[in-house]
Amino acid sequence: MSDAPAWKDDFPVSWVDDHYVTRREFTKSLVLVSGAACAANGAVLALGAAERAQEGKPLPEVRVAARRDLPVGGALRFDYPEAGRPCLLLRLDEERFAAFGQKCTHLGCPVLYRPQEQVLHCPCHEGFFKAADGTVLSGPPPRPLPQVKIEVRGDEVWATGLVRR
User: Fold this and answer.
1) Any idea which fold 62-162 has?
2) 3-state percent breakdown (helix, strand, coil) of the chain, nearest 5
3) What is the pLDDT of residues 3-36, one digit of tens each?
């Protein structure tokens, strides 16, 4: 007869294998990860609700540049509607200006203006947008660039809002 308890004969587990994760530890980890995921989803929903609440408010009118500061085929970076929201003002020809958010709608890389081709190019994943209206020409971007409303007032170019699509 052995000095070992009877259960050790029925459940022979080596001492080394005994240090693996128990069901209780696994369940505790699962609950913690699920709770963190739930909290993250709640934060995303709260941020989305805050953005939707801002949609009804009028956006500021901001002087972006003087006409003479931007040559035909030129681009100028500015922030709109608030600091930290990069946009590009484009001078398409002598009379036409266009402005768009500078973040690609695919993964948020900055887009660059190519005046010879009249496109905005996202170098991260080869996305292309039409410079006249920001629509997707090719690549992975799922939707057009956000367009900024532009008004030319005398010799000044002003951002007055966002175009709703």
Assistant:
1) Rieske Iron-sulfur Protein (2.102.10)
2) 25, 30, 40
3) 777 777 777 666 666 667 778 888 999 999 999 9
